[in-house]
């Protein structure tokens, strides 16, 4: 398996550049996908992810290997950085555009099914993008990153009951945004 995150962090603190590259490489995709889902902007998410890893490197000497879980710690930095971004005038002034992931089509696949899958993704992404920021953050951490409520609480700094409330409200709002739901729409279409 290689070195653990904690072992890499100890080496980074002693100046090992290769350990830093390995740690970033190991967690880059997770952080980027979290930021992208939170912001809804593919290009912006790259910039914010770079900034997050710079912040991480600057504060790595404060990370407690004995108490911490690095995944939760880097997601906490990511969450705080995105919250800071959402407070900026740049965010408030810009128009948000959706960047839908392309679906690769193989010749043996049914194009109708692929279009329905893509349409479902677009609907879900749009519904998540319409959630209030704190609900969107809780939903993404819970369902896209498979974190427990306690871990989400540690990342966001909010009480577990607050996280539960955000998840409940977020799911309720998603159901409202999606109408009868994706599967309900597909059932009536056939």
UniProtKB/TrEMBL annotation:
<dbReference type="InterPro" id="IPR036388">
    <property type="entry name" value="WH-like_DNA-bd_sf"/>
</dbReference>
<dbReference type="Pfam" id="PF04542">
    <property type="entry name" value="Sigma70_r2"/>
</dbReference>
<dbReference type="GO" id="GO:0016987">
    <property type="term" value="F:sigma factor activity"/>
</dbReference>
<comment type="similarity">
    <text>Belongs to the sigma-70 factor family. ECF subfamily.</text>
</comment>
<dbReference type="InterPro" id="IPR039425">
    <property type="entry name" value="RNA_pol_sigma-70-like"/>
</dbReference>
<dbReference type="InterPro" id="IPR007627">
    <property type="entry name" value="RNA_pol_sigma70_r2"/>
</dbReference>
<feature type="domain" description="RNA polymerase sigma-70 region 2">
    <location>
        <begin position="23"/>
        <end position="88"/>
    </location>
</feature>
<dbReference type="InterPro" id="IPR013324">
    <property type="entry name" value="RNA_pol_sigma_r3/r4-like"/>
</dbReference>
<keyword id="KW-0731">Sigma factor</keyword>
<dbReference type="InterPro" id="IPR013249">
    <property type="entry name" value="RNA_pol_sigma70_r4_t2"/>
</dbReference>
<protein>
    <submittedName>
        <fullName>RNA polymerase sigma factor</fullName>
    </submittedName>
</protein>
<keyword id="KW-0238">DNA-binding</keyword>
<dbReference type="InterPro" id="IPR013325">
    <property type="entry name" value="RNA_pol_sigma_r2"/>
</dbReference>
<dbReference type="GO" id="GO:0006352">
    <property type="term" value="P:DNA-templated transcription initiation"/>
</dbReference>
<dbReference type="Pfam" id="PF08281">
    <property type="entry name" value="Sigma70_r4_2"/>
</dbReference>
<feature type="domain" description="RNA polymerase sigma factor 70 region 4 type 2">
    <location>
        <begin position="124"/>
        <end position="173"/>
    </location>
</feature>
<keyword id="KW-0804">Transcription</keyword>
<dbReference type="InterPro" id="IPR014284">
    <property type="entry name" value="RNA_pol_sigma-70_dom"/>
</dbReference>
<dbReference type="GO" id="GO:0003677">
    <property type="term" value="F:DNA binding"/>
</dbReference>
<keyword id="KW-0805">Transcription regulation</keyword>
